[in-house]
Specification:
The protein has 397 residues and is of the alpha+beta class. It contains eleven helices and 17 strands. The strands form five sheets. A seven-stranded mixed β-sheet has the order 3-2-11-12-13-10-14, sandwiched between helices. The longest helix has 23 residues, at 294-316. The structure holds flavin-adenine dinucleotide (FAD).
């Protein structure tokens, strides 16, 4: 996978969904060395300053993407009714006159065919499904793209330092540079820098170090200087939000579904991808057990992406680099989110908790509109008008 060298955060909702699909998977990841820590204990820099340190009830597991994948793959492989063909590249999808699917794939220097009743496209951002559907004469699905031109650069390090919460500095339209330092398995750490547009980080090691040095100083960033890099800097720039509206296609073919990034890929800085895929897995399981039609199942799978899509695109449309301007409704919701975020960064633990729980998809966005949040924002506005608000200085953690 092209993104496997990049830092991956497993959101709380994703952890719960994976646990439901594969009971005990969290314990397996821990046994494989993935450290745990509480989200509220990790210094977090948002658009308006540092979030208060506290207990948000979000227990995170930090693992590299390959470890998460290896653990899940192992569980799937152990299922007695599952057979896997490895090192295969699907190159075509056709339908026989009796309506069955014919999947053709390259495998060991030969092209082979597989007949199927149900085909699920989970081939990620590079999915060729739009081309195959066109060849089958299926009406084209509307595709929406919002690209803020975010780029990642990541390097692995070894360290004798005990696993700790690291640091997360989020990018925002007002500060389009971010970074993440976090422990993973095997006593290693992943260090990621994120930039936007012409400021997207490259492979150059000195430029990587300079990008880190330009961030607000923290003890976690200081500690990186003592760590030993393992391998080169890995970069990734395919981060656009891309959504194929397959659920709206009339005459959608029976026995064909799209899930994960092949259906809807969101900007990874919000950490939604694995969580969405896992929640869609749960929807798929329910739909298959209930014998639902393909079109209903595709609609229900697509619904899972609605909230992450809105959260990511409403933010990303605010960037100067974005391919699409912000819409009024999204701008208003985004503006309210900013107010609650500002409250959090001014030290309100309840506001920080709400922001984090909404971000981790364990609380609905309506939690940001609770009477407590509305009262908190109103009080902060009043104080600001009276000029009693003290300026926020970026706190050195
Ligand atoms: C830089 C970056 C950082 C990210 N960070 C996070 C994060 O912090 N948290 C998070 O939850 N998500 C993150 N994501 C998103 C996450 O990686 C994806 O959303 C998630 O992996 C989607 O799963 P998927 O199964 O749909 O696709 P993928 O995981 O991309 O898997 C697709 C698979 O299909 C295979 N494939 C493709 N074409 C074919 C073919 N023709 N034949 C056979 N096989 C094929 C590929 O080799 C791959 O194995 C990040 C993504 C990027 C790019």
């Amino acid at each position: 996978m092209p993104q496997s060298g990049q830092s991956h955060i497993l959101l709380m909702r994703g952890r719960l969904a994976l646990e439901e699909l594969f009971p005990g998977v969290g314990a397996e990841l821990s046994a494989a060395g993935a450290p745990h820590f509480q989200m509220g204990r990790m210094p977090l820099l948002g658009a308006d300053g540092w979030a208060p340190i506290g207990d948000y009830g979000l227990d995170l597991l930090c693992a590299s993407r390959p470890l998460i994948e290896h653990t899940i793959r192992h569980r799937v492989q152990a299922m007695p009714r599952v057979a896997m063909t490895t090192r295969a590249r699907v190159n075509g999808l056709t339908q026989t006159p009796d309506g069955a699917w014919q999947v053709s794939y390259d495998h060991a220097d030969a092209t082979e065919e597989l007949r199927a009743e149900l085909v699920i496209d989970a081939s990620g951002r590079s999915s060729r499904l739009p081309t195959w559907l066109a060849e089958l004469g299926v009406p084209e699905a509307k595709t929406v793209t919002v690209d803020a031109q975010v780029g990642y650069a990541t390097r692995r390090y070894t360290s004798t330092r005990a696993p700790g919460p690291g640091v997360l500095m989020m990018i925002s339209p007002t500060r389009p540079r971010g970074c993440m330092v976090g422990p993973i398995e095997d006593g290693q750490w992943l260090v990621t820098t994120v930039g936007v547009g012409a400021d997207r980080p490259g492979r150059d090691e000195d430029a990587f170090d300079q990008h880190l040095a330009s961030m607000p100083p923290t003890s976690a960033l200081e500690a990186v200087r003592e760590m030993t890099p393992v391998g080169e800097v890995a970069v990734h720039r395919q981060t656009a939000n891309v959504r194929h509206r397959y659920e709206d296609v009339r005459r959608w073919p029976q026995g064909l579904l799209a899930v994960g990034d092949s259906l809807c890929a969101v900007n990874p800085v919000y950490g939604h991808g694995i969580t969405v895929a896992a929640c869609q897995g749960l929807r798929l399981r329910t739909a298959l057990r209930a014998g639902r039609s393909t079109s209903t199942t595709q609609r229900q799978i697509a619904q899972v992406t609605n909230l992450p899509w809105t959260m990511a695109t409403s933010q990303d449309r605010m960037y100067a680099t974005s391919s699409e301007p912000a819409r009024l409704q999204e701008a208003l919701i985004g503006a309210w989110g900013d107010q609650v975020g500002r409250l959090a960064m001014r030290g309100s633990l309840p506001a920080a908790e709400v922001m984090q729980r909404v971000g981790h998809l364990v609380s609905p966005p309506t939690a940001m509109f609770s009477p407590r949040m509305v009262a908190g924002v109103a009080r902060a506005q009043l104080r600001r008008r009276r000029g009693t608000t003290r300026g926020i200085a970026a706190r050195v953690v």
